[in-house]
Amino acid sequence: MQKKWIAAGTAALVFMCTAAGAYAGANLKPIKAFLNPSMKFQVNGQPFQPQNDNGAVLAPIVYNNTTYLPVRSMSKALGVAIDYNQQTNTIYLGEKAEGVSVAGTFSGDFRTKDPQLTTYGDKDYKDVFFNNSSGTRGASFMLYPKGKYTKLYLQVAAVGKDVEEIFVQDADTDIKLKIGTVAVSEGIKTFEVDISGVNDLFVHADVKSGGSLFVPLTTSFYK
Questions:
Q1: Which Pfam families does the protein's record reference (predicted)?
Q2: Strand partners, 202
Q3: Nearest-5° angle of CA 127, CA 160, CA 218?
Q4: With b meaning 16 or more CB within 10 Å and e meaning fewer, what string describes 61-94?
């Protein structure tokens, strides 16, 4: 119901951007509107107050008998991913049509672009997380989608030994969003993870002695 509501109400939303230059070159028209700070909100039965990214309270705008709400604040309240492309002056709500590589949001050790380590099977993935350390261990890294995406498609391969547990966790709430296994015989395996409204992700796998974890960053992507 939440996603249907936000889709139906998109036409009645106004994008609040704090950067003064964000509207440069846009077709802006002056209007006479009113702020309505007395309007109250509830989301899923709980009181909700729209705020900007700095925590300042935002009031709805009333224009021509239509109430306009701050889209970024409402998208966060409803768990709907949002992003803005300044060059095309386009707001993206929900899943994007094209995938975006996770490489730009990766943080952690064992990242490599060495062709001797980035090749799996017959393909060179160019940029990978490859934990080939010794002993039984945890292999982990961080991803930072910053609430811009709805889905994560994470590709993983177990090398040498099966991975009996791998999980993707919301780093802010410690809620595990996906738990699975990866067998050597499966080759490159893709996990689809719902990450709507999630800012920071913790990815962790338990790797056995003699085994390695291979994660191609160029073909793992957000939507």
A1: Cu_amine_oxidN1
A2: 142, 169
A3: 15
A4: beeeeeebbbbbbbbbbbbbbbbbeeeeeebbbb
pTM above 0.90, yes or no: no
**Residue 39 has which token pair?**
């309007």
Q: In percent, how much of the chain has pLDDT > 90?
A: 53
Distance CA 197, CA 81 (A): 5
* Closest by CA position to 166, among listed 125, 110, 211: 211
**Domain 100-222 class?**
mainly beta
**Tokens 């595990």 appear where?**
176
Q: Are 141 and 112 in contact (CB under 8 A)?
A: no
Report the phi/psi class of residue 187: left, alpha or beta, with left for phi > 0 and alpha for psi in -120 to 50: left
Selection from 10, 222, 223, 211 nearest residue 104 by Cα: 222
The domain limits of the chain are 2-93, 100-222
| Tens of pLDDT, residues 89-105 | 777 676 555 789 999 99
